[in-house]
Amino acid sequence: MRIAELSRRTAVPVPTIKYYVREGLVPRGELTSRNQATYDERHERRIRLVRALIDIGGLSIATTRDLLGQLDNPEASVDSLLGRTMLNLNPSRERVDDETRADAAARVQKLVHSRGWRIDAHDPTFDVLIDLVAAMRALGEDDLLEILDTYAEAAEKVAAIDLAVVSRRKDLESIIDGAVVGTVLGGSMLLALRRLAHIDASGRVFRPES
Q1: How confident is the model at residue 112, as a pLDDT?
Q2: Which residues are in the HTH merR-type domain (predicted)?
Q3: Is there a single domain that holds both residue 29 and residue 109?
Q4: Which of the chain's termini has less CB crowding within 10 Å, N or C?
Q5: What pLDDT is attached to residue 210?
Protein backbone atom coordinates (compact mmCIF):
# COMPACT_ATOMS: atom_id res chain seq x y z
CA MET A 1 0.00 0.00 0.00
CA ARG A 2 1.05 3.63 -0.47
CA ILE A 3 1.75 5.87 2.49
CA ALA A 4 -1.60 7.63 2.04
CA GLU A 5 -3.41 4.31 2.46
CA LEU A 6 -1.24 3.47 5.46
CA SER A 7 -2.21 6.83 6.95
CA ARG A 8 -5.90 6.16 6.37
CA ARG A 9 -5.78 2.67 7.89
CA THR A 10 -3.87 3.77 11.01
CA ALA A 11 -5.49 7.23 11.40
CA VAL A 12 -1.98 8.67 11.66
CA PRO A 13 -1.10 11.70 9.48
CA VAL A 14 1.45 11.16 6.72
CA PRO A 15 3.95 13.68 8.23
CA THR A 16 3.80 11.77 11.52
CA ILE A 17 4.47 8.47 9.77
CA LYS A 18 7.45 10.02 8.00
CA TYR A 19 8.70 11.31 11.35
CA TYR A 20 8.42 7.83 12.86
CA VAL A 21 10.44 6.46 9.94
CA ARG A 22 13.14 9.14 10.33
CA GLU A 23 13.38 8.39 14.07
CA GLY A 24 13.79 4.68 13.41
CA LEU A 25 10.51 3.73 15.08
CA VAL A 26 8.97 2.35 11.90
CA PRO A 27 10.95 0.56 9.16
CA ARG A 28 11.23 2.24 5.80
CA GLY A 29 8.91 1.15 3.03
CA GLU A 30 10.10 -0.77 0.01
CA LEU A 31 11.17 1.67 -2.69
CA THR A 32 9.36 1.27 -6.00
CA SER A 33 10.83 4.42 -7.51
CA ARG A 34 12.96 7.36 -6.44
CA ASN A 35 10.13 9.06 -4.56
CA GLN A 36 7.69 6.21 -3.98
CA ALA A 37 7.59 3.41 -1.44
CA THR A 38 5.11 0.72 -0.53
CA TYR A 39 4.12 -0.48 2.92
CA ASP A 40 2.43 -3.59 4.26
CA GLU A 41 0.67 -4.98 7.34
CA ARG A 42 3.98 -5.09 9.19
CA HIS A 43 4.23 -1.31 8.99
CA GLU A 44 0.61 -0.94 10.05
CA ARG A 45 1.14 -3.09 13.15
CA ARG A 46 4.31 -1.21 14.08
CA ILE A 47 2.62 2.18 13.78
CA ARG A 48 -0.23 1.04 16.02
CA LEU A 49 2.31 -0.19 18.58
CA VAL A 50 4.25 3.09 18.43
CA ARG A 51 1.02 5.03 19.01
CA ALA A 52 0.17 2.82 21.99
CA LEU A 53 3.61 3.29 23.55
CA ILE A 54 3.79 7.05 22.99
CA ASP A 55 0.20 8.31 23.07
CA ILE A 56 -1.26 5.89 25.62
CA GLY A 57 1.80 4.79 27.56
CA GLY A 58 3.38 8.26 27.60
CA LEU A 59 6.82 6.94 26.66
CA SER A 60 9.44 9.20 25.13
CA ILE A 61 10.72 8.73 21.59
CA ALA A 62 14.06 7.49 22.95
CA THR A 63 12.47 4.96 25.30
CA THR A 64 10.12 3.79 22.58
CA ARG A 65 13.05 3.33 20.18
CA ASP A 66 14.88 1.28 22.82
CA LEU A 67 11.89 -0.98 23.43
CA LEU A 68 11.32 -1.48 19.73
CA GLY A 69 14.98 -2.35 19.32
CA GLN A 70 14.54 -5.05 21.94
CA LEU A 71 11.39 -6.19 20.19
CA ASP A 72 13.33 -6.68 16.96
CA ASN A 73 15.96 -8.73 18.79
CA PRO A 74 15.26 -12.39 17.91
CA GLU A 75 16.70 -13.48 21.27
CA ALA A 76 14.36 -11.29 23.34
CA SER A 77 11.71 -13.14 25.37
CA VAL A 78 8.09 -12.13 25.80
CA ASP A 79 8.58 -12.01 29.57
CA SER A 80 11.57 -9.65 29.42
CA LEU A 81 9.89 -7.36 26.90
CA LEU A 82 6.71 -7.12 28.94
CA GLY A 83 8.80 -6.38 32.02
CA ARG A 84 10.73 -3.58 30.32
CA THR A 85 7.52 -2.11 28.90
CA MET A 86 5.64 -2.15 32.19
CA LEU A 87 8.63 -0.67 34.01
CA ASN A 88 8.59 2.36 31.73
CA LEU A 89 4.88 2.87 32.40
CA ASN A 90 5.47 3.32 36.14
CA PRO A 91 4.67 6.86 37.30
CA SER A 92 7.13 8.99 39.23
CA ARG A 93 6.43 9.46 42.94
CA GLU A 94 7.66 11.35 46.00
CA ARG A 95 10.00 9.75 48.51
CA VAL A 96 9.40 9.82 52.29
CA ASP A 97 11.82 9.61 55.22
CA ASP A 98 14.14 6.61 55.49
CA GLU A 99 12.55 5.09 58.60
CA THR A 100 9.04 5.10 57.13
CA ARG A 101 10.34 3.71 53.85
CA ALA A 102 12.30 0.95 55.60
CA ASP A 103 9.14 -0.14 57.38
CA ALA A 104 7.24 -0.06 54.09
CA ALA A 105 9.96 -2.11 52.40
CA ALA A 106 9.71 -4.80 55.08
CA ARG A 107 5.93 -4.85 54.71
CA VAL A 108 6.13 -5.24 50.94
CA GLN A 109 8.77 -7.97 51.14
CA LYS A 110 6.60 -9.86 53.63
CA LEU A 111 3.60 -9.53 51.33
CA VAL A 112 5.48 -10.80 48.27
CA HIS A 113 6.85 -13.74 50.27
CA SER A 114 3.47 -14.66 51.71
CA ARG A 115 1.84 -14.56 48.27
CA GLY A 116 4.57 -16.79 46.85
CA TRP A 117 5.24 -14.33 44.02
CA ARG A 118 8.28 -15.24 41.92
CA ILE A 119 9.67 -11.76 41.43
CA ASP A 120 13.22 -10.46 41.22
CA ALA A 121 13.85 -8.51 44.43
CA HIS A 122 15.70 -5.88 42.37
CA ASP A 123 12.72 -5.20 40.11
CA PRO A 124 12.14 -1.39 40.22
CA THR A 125 8.42 -2.04 40.59
CA PHE A 126 9.21 -2.99 44.16
CA ASP A 127 10.26 0.62 44.72
CA VAL A 128 6.95 1.84 43.30
CA LEU A 129 4.92 -0.23 45.76
CA ILE A 130 7.25 0.54 48.66
CA ASP A 131 6.94 4.29 48.07
CA LEU A 132 3.15 4.05 47.83
CA VAL A 133 2.93 2.05 51.06
CA ALA A 134 5.33 4.48 52.75
CA ALA A 135 3.21 7.44 51.61
CA MET A 136 0.11 5.84 53.11
CA ARG A 137 2.00 5.26 56.38
CA ALA A 138 3.14 8.87 56.41
CA LEU A 139 -0.48 9.97 55.99
CA GLY A 140 -1.55 7.79 58.91
CA GLU A 141 -3.72 5.51 56.76
CA ASP A 142 -2.68 2.32 58.53
CA ASP A 143 -6.17 0.86 58.46
CA LEU A 144 -6.11 0.94 54.66
CA LEU A 145 -2.77 -0.84 54.67
CA GLU A 146 -4.33 -3.64 56.69
CA ILE A 147 -6.17 -4.71 53.53
CA LEU A 148 -3.01 -4.72 51.39
CA ASP A 149 -3.12 -8.50 51.13
CA THR A 150 -6.72 -8.32 49.92
CA TYR A 151 -5.64 -5.86 47.24
CA ALA A 152 -2.83 -8.23 46.27
CA GLU A 153 -5.28 -11.10 45.93
CA ALA A 154 -7.49 -8.99 43.67
CA ALA A 155 -4.43 -7.95 41.65
CA GLU A 156 -3.53 -11.60 41.09
CA LYS A 157 -6.95 -12.25 39.62
CA VAL A 158 -6.74 -9.20 37.34
CA ALA A 159 -3.22 -10.17 36.20
CA ALA A 160 -4.34 -13.71 35.40
CA ILE A 161 -7.25 -12.38 33.33
CA ASP A 162 -5.02 -9.87 31.50
CA LEU A 163 -2.40 -12.48 30.62
CA ALA A 164 -5.03 -14.99 29.52
CA VAL A 165 -6.34 -12.43 27.02
CA VAL A 166 -3.05 -11.18 25.54
CA SER A 167 -1.43 -14.63 25.45
CA ARG A 168 -4.00 -15.68 22.86
CA ARG A 169 -2.51 -13.18 20.42
CA LYS A 170 -0.28 -14.60 17.71
CA ASP A 171 2.59 -12.12 17.41
CA LEU A 172 4.85 -10.38 19.90
CA GLU A 173 4.02 -6.84 18.77
CA SER A 174 0.34 -7.48 19.35
CA ILE A 175 1.08 -8.88 22.81
CA ILE A 176 3.10 -5.79 23.77
CA ASP A 177 0.42 -3.51 22.29
CA GLY A 178 -2.26 -5.24 24.35
CA ALA A 179 -0.15 -5.07 27.49
CA VAL A 180 0.37 -1.30 27.12
CA VAL A 181 -3.26 -0.53 26.37
CA GLY A 182 -4.44 -2.94 29.05
CA THR A 183 -2.14 -1.47 31.67
CA VAL A 184 -2.89 2.21 31.00
CA LEU A 185 -6.50 2.23 29.81
CA GLY A 186 -7.35 -0.95 31.68
CA GLY A 187 -5.98 0.61 34.85
CA SER A 188 -8.13 3.70 34.32
CA MET A 189 -11.12 1.48 33.62
CA LEU A 190 -10.55 -0.40 36.88
CA LEU A 191 -10.41 2.93 38.73
CA ALA A 192 -13.70 3.99 37.17
CA LEU A 193 -15.32 0.65 38.04
CA ARG A 194 -13.94 0.92 41.56
CA ARG A 195 -15.39 4.42 41.90
CA LEU A 196 -18.82 3.26 40.72
CA ALA A 197 -18.66 0.33 43.13
CA HIS A 198 -17.74 2.76 45.92
CA ILE A 199 -20.77 4.90 45.13
CA ASP A 200 -23.03 1.87 45.24
CA ALA A 201 -21.46 0.47 48.42
CA SER A 202 -21.53 3.85 50.14
CA GLY A 203 -25.20 4.22 49.37
CA ARG A 204 -25.96 0.79 50.78
CA VAL A 205 -23.99 1.45 53.97
CA PHE A 206 -24.80 5.09 54.70
CA ARG A 207 -28.18 5.44 52.99
CA PRO A 208 -29.72 1.98 53.46
CA GLU A 209 -33.29 3.27 53.23
CA SER A 210 -32.79 5.08 49.91
Answers
A1: 93
A2: 1-70
A3: no
A4: C
A5: 53
